[in-house]
Every structure is written in structure tokens, then in C-alpha cells.
Known about the structure:
This protein has helices spanning 53-59, 69-86, 99-110, 124-135, 153-159, 181-190, 239-246, 259-268, 281-297, 299-319, 343-352, 380-394; strands at residues 42-43, 93-96, 116-121, 139-144, 165-169, 171-172, 177-178, 194-198, 217-221, 232-237, 335-339, 355-356, 358-359, 368-372. It is of the alpha/beta class. It folds into 2 domains: 13-52 and 299-394, CATH 3.90.1150.10; 55-295, CATH 3.40.640.10. It is globular. Mean pLDDT is 94; it is low at 1-15. Bound molecules: pyridoxal-5'-phosphate (PLP).
Amino acid sequence: xxxxxxxxxxxxxxxxxxxxxxxxxxxxxxxLDPNRLPDxxxxxxxxxxxxxxxDLSILGSQLMAHYGDVWTQLHADALAALGRFLGAADxxxxxxxxxxxxxxxxxxxxxxxxxxxxxCDTGYFGQRSKELALAHRLEVVEVPVEVGAPIDPARIADxxxxxxxxxxxxxxxxxxxxxxxxxxxxxxxxxGAVYMVDGIASVGGEKVNVDEMELDCLVTGTQKxxxxxxxxxxxxxxxxxxxxxxxxxxxxxxxxxxxKIWDKYRTEWGSWHPHPxxxxxxxxxxxxxxxxxILDHGLDAWxxxxxxxxxxxRAGLTELGLDLVPEEGAGANLVVAAWADDPAAIQAHLLDxxxxxxxxxxxxxxxxxxxxxxxRTATEEHVDxxxxxxxxxxx
Length: 395
Ligand SMILES: *Cc1c(COP(=O)(O)O)cnc(C)c1O
């Protein structure tokens, strides 16, 4: 397979034509003719995952009106399915943007400037939570977390006094570590704080149930465990989160991300245009198609299968002599990370063979490989092939 587009991927801090490892980025003139698009490697990166073949035709269909009887019914069905998927009786919000759009929405609607929040430095996306909190002018108390270890809820309890909220990732994509969200929720609620979870790399691959786990606010995106195209953010509230949103003293400093605006359109325009902006209808339908596949399979069984696949990757990498980033028992199901002396060389060998995996991200940048188990390529056959290629690269 000829790889024209992704010779080396540019990374944060990269200068114009060189990526963060100092490798030159190959550039070519690309065709947009649908029959001559560049060949892409198969994606086994830490997100997004490739789409399932059955969902592709939805994206290739003619545009649908984002209002009227047909759309209103489809939209309602999609959101109801999503609510079942997330274990949220309060119908989730689906907002054009990405997962981060809804992280921003969560901060806007749960907190008010000057309030104290506890965040955990789990890695790149834990640090992102802190950046968002600072952007929202919150007082941030940061809990350090050892690389590879899950968050210790007792460390949050130590600093929670007076905090309005606790914010953590569920799965830290930079390390492939799963964090104990149920225990953290109990710690947060024990001191009256609201708990907000970044579940962008966990939903669809890990057990997540908003109401049962009392996750006041769960945020996710469409392109990782939901195995659909990027372009939508998702935000779900438990009863506790709903109460917090309703109890605000004033509206947030955003119109687009004010959940009360979205509520207003749901109620007042619900029968023909249940959202305040033009919805990307194809993205909503592709998401619906994908989550319906997972629900039809059985969500628990789907997650167990993904857990078994992640275990197969971990066992295979260990057998090849690599050390896993997560400590025993903390490894996540959608992304597996292992330390490597020369991750770029492994990635390059895989690319030459038509498969793309990820390198590291803070604190694993330049020191690890990460394999994503999402979408069409999350199969035993693909895992066997990736392990074989990594073995060749190491030999
Ligand atoms: C991918 C990811 C994000 C960023 O999501 P976008 O959809 O790109 O905004 C945030 N948090 C985690 C844990 C992620 O894995």
C-alpha cells in the first residue's frame, strides 16, 4: 500500500516541516477526486477509529433537512438510544463540535468563575482539564498522579475541602490507564462537590453508567469508542448534575454552550426543530447507526470483547519484551500503551506496511507506542498483524 498522506504525523510544538521527533514531514500534492484519494493506512491509532463499512453509505447520502417530522423523529430516536447507551435517564446533549466542545460546555454550566475545582494530572488530557478550568477562571487544585497508576481517590479527599467540583478523565489516552470513576464520585459527593468525567476515550469500551455511577456530568465524543465520525460532542447529566445546572445564579458566558438554550429549543421547538443550530444530520445518523450496532450486540458483551482484545495486545507486547505503561490491572480497553526505546522506528515500519499506530503524548511522548482498539480495525486479525509487525520492527 502506498502511503502518501501520513508519512510522519506533525505533533504539538513541531516546526513547519519537521515533527516533534525531528523527522521531516513528507508533503505531496493531493487529489480530491473521490476515485483518486490517497491510499490511507489502516488506523489503529489512539483515536479516531475507522468507520464500519455499513455506516459509510450514510455519510455518502444526500443531505437531510435538519428540521421537520422526519428529522425530529430520527433525532429523538438517536438521542434516546444514546441515553440508554450511557445509562442516563436525562436525555444527553449532542452538540456539533468535538468532545472538547462539551468539556467546555460542562465547565460553563457546572461552575462559576472563582470556584475551586480539583483536577488530576493523569497526563496530556488530565492537563487539558486543568487548562480548561483555568480558561474558565476557576481556582485549580491539582492532584499529582504517578505515571501508569490509577488515581488514588484518597488523594482527592485530602484536598477536596471547599471544592465545588472534581474533574478527571476516565481513561487517560496518553498512558492507556483507566481511573476509578465510581470511587472518585463517592469522594466528590461525600464533600458536596460535583463530579465531571472526561469519558472521551472510555465510552463504548469501558463500563460507564451515568445514573448508576452517579457521574454528575459525563462528556464524550463520537469518534473513539462510539466508532462514528468526529464532529459531535456529547454531554450527559445525572440527577445531581441536572440539579447543579438548574441551581446556577446566572447564565454562562456562552450562548452556544448554554445548556438552557438547548433545553429551550427541545421544549419550545421540539416538534419540528429540537436544537438551536443546524445539526450535521449525517453525523448524527452515523452515530445512531453505530451505537445501534453496539446495543444490538449487547453493550456488556461488546465491552467484554474489547477488554479481551486489549488483554491480547498487552500479552503480545509483553511477550515481545516491551513494558506496559499502565500498572497491572489498570490497563484500558480502547488504547494500549507500552514503553519503547525507539517508537518512531516502530511506527515507521508499521506505516510502510500500511498500518498506523500512535506514538506517545505527555508523559509518554517520544517514549511509547499506543495502539487503538476502536472501529473497523478492532479485530483479532488486525491485532495479530500489528503484533507481528511490531515484532519485526524490534528484531
Ligand atoms: C481524544 C480525547 C480528547 C479530545 O477529544 P476531541 O473530540 O478531539 O475534542 C479529550 N480527552 C480525551 C481523554 C481524549 O481521549
